[in-house]
Every structure is written in structure tokens, then in C-alpha cells.
Amino acid sequence: MGHVATLNNDHSKHVRSEPASKPLKTHIVGVLLAMLMLVGGCSRSTSSPEAAVEPASRDSGDSSRSYLPPPSASADPSVIHFVSIPGGSARLGSLSNEPGRDPALERLTTYTVAPFEMSVSEITRAQWFPIMEPHRSASTSGGNLPITNINWYQATQYCHLLTIKTGMVHRLPTEIEWEYACRAGSSELLAVWDGNCSLSDAITTFHRGDSGKLLRGIKASCNIDSGRIQPVGQFRPNRFGLVDMHGNCWEWLTLESPLSEPPSPLHAPIRGGSAISTNPLDARAANRAWQKRNDAAESIGLRVVRETIN
């Protein structure tokens, strides 16, 4: 069975008077030189090289590193950034040799998914409170931490209020949308891999009784089993540009799914694993889990989908 969790100008013109006795030719040459200098200056100001791309690795313990899109000078931390997820068909579930696989719940099946948009990260405290508690002080600490300790009903209410505010439909992802977005075309255990050996080698050693390489690799790739939720975007994104799909905090999902039903009508699906999970294999893309809908846990947050307008 799947694991049930127990449990982010005013440009003034300056005119210089020239002496009346100055030759006209010299004046013209001076003007031309000034124009050339101006053009040259403009050229230099607009041809600066693009910012270097962040290398696809993470320095352990560097909490200042972020793989989120670079903020503009007037960035508002309450704004949710979305990634367009292209539609397509993909096999979801787990391979037969995947460690931690539940063959009854993770059967490989091909699904066709329509295009949608998904929030780059888990919803943060800075994005949550202006919608759910608009009178709360804007100086709330930990604004870039994912919002947790919320139940499924609060998560769906947040989506409902976002829909009203923006006029665009926001909702929780389905299980199929979540796994499709998480994998971003990958069929591997993790769609992001920072291990110290190849993933296939790590899986082979796992099946030979040595789980160390695989578990260390998973922990190097996402915030799992660290005991502490971290600000969003500390680990490199997947191919779609989504961060923290593996680890950091579990994410509430919608009940609408063609996959097998939860243990009871009181449960809702969660995906992704968390920093508080003691089993790194919880972070697998195919891992399925459920939680009672009225339970709020430190390890559970949310990510939202914005429906694409055709």
C-alpha cells in the first residue's frame, strides 16, 4: 500500500554657447564627434553580456542560493510565477526495478495531458497570507518559506480565492498533472539527480543490498530527510523549470483523478515527500500517499495550477 503521511526623467538639454569667432567647420566637427560619442555610449549600455546561467548543482549548506527566476528590481514576493507545461502523452508510474516501488499503485500507464500552467515553486508564506489573511502584517518573517500546517480544505479555499481575485481558474493539480510536471519527460526515480554516481548504478547497488549511494544521491538532489523545511528554490529545477517537486514539503492534490481511490472519502492525495520524511524514497516521482483532508501538518503545503485559456 502507499504511504499515508503522518505527519515554496527629466532629460534636460544642455546647450553650450560657442564663441562667435569659432569657425563653422570646427563647430560642425565638434557636433559630429559628440553625436558619435553619444551613439557609442548607447551602444555600450545596451550590449552588456547576459547574466550567466546558474550551474546545475547545489553547494551544500548554502541557503542563499536560489534557482528561482531572478527577481526584477521591483519584485513583489506575493506574486506567483508560473511555468507553462506543454501537453502531451507520457508513461506515468514506476519501472519494475525502481526501489520502493508499489506495483499495485504505480503501474506504468500512458496518459494524455492537456497544457496547463503550474506555479514554479510551492506556495510561499508571502503568497499565502495576502489572499487568506489580507490584514496580516506584510512583514511576516519567513516569507520565502513554503506555507505549511494547512489542511486540504484551506488549500482548495486558497485556489478559490485566487480564482475570484484574478478571474483565471486556479486549482490544485491532479495526480496525473503533478507527476507529468514532476517528471518533465523523465522516467527515472527522480527527475533531478545530483548523486555522486549514475542513477542506474545507484539503483543496482541498492538491489545488491547497498542502499547508501542511492539514498545519499536522493538527499543531494532535494530537501528530504533533513528535518527542516527550507526556503523554496534551494535545489536545481527540473526540465520544465519547476523547483522542489521532490522534497521540501508534501503537496496537496485534487481528488479528481482516474488513479485508484484513496483509503477513504476522508483522505486526499499528497505527493513529493518532505524534509520531515524519514524515508528518502518518499521523494520518488511515482510515490503515492494520502492524508486526511482535515489534517494540517508541518510537512504539507501546496502548489497551484492555473488553467490555460485556449
What does this structure look like?
This protein is an alpha+beta fold. The chain is 24% helix and 12% strand. The chain contains six helices and eleven strands. The strands form three sheets. The chain has a five-stranded mixed sheet, covered by helices on one side. The chain has a four-stranded antiparallel sheet with strand order 2-5-11-6. It has a two-stranded antiparallel ribbon with strand order 3-4. The longest helix has 23 residues, at 24-46. The model is unreliable at 6-64 (pLDDT under 50).
Query: Low-confidence parts, pLDDT < 50 over ≥5 residues?
Result: 6-64
**CA-based gyration radius:** 26 Å
Q: Structural class of the secondary elements?
A: alpha+beta
Average pLDDT figure: 80
H/E series: EHEEEEHHEHHHEEEEE
What general outline do the C-alpha atoms trace? globular
Main β sheet profile: 5 strands, mixed
Please list the strands of the largest sheet in the order they lie side by side.
1-9-8-7-10
Q: Supply the number of helical segments.
A: 6
β-sheet strand percentage: 5-15%
Estimate the helix proportion, in percent. Answer: 10-25%
SS elements, strand count: 11
First-to-last CA distance: 39 Å
What topology does this entry show?
Elements: E1 3-4, H1 24-46, E2 82-85, E3 88-92, E4 109-113, E5 116-119, H2 125-132, H3 152-166, E6 170-171, H4 175-183, H5 199-207, H6 212-221, E7 250-252, E8 267-271, E9 289-292, E10 300-301, E11 305-306
Parallel strand pairs: 1-9, 7-10
Antiparallel strand pairs: 2-5, 3-4, 5-11, 6-11, 7-8, 8-9
Helix pairs in contact: 5-6
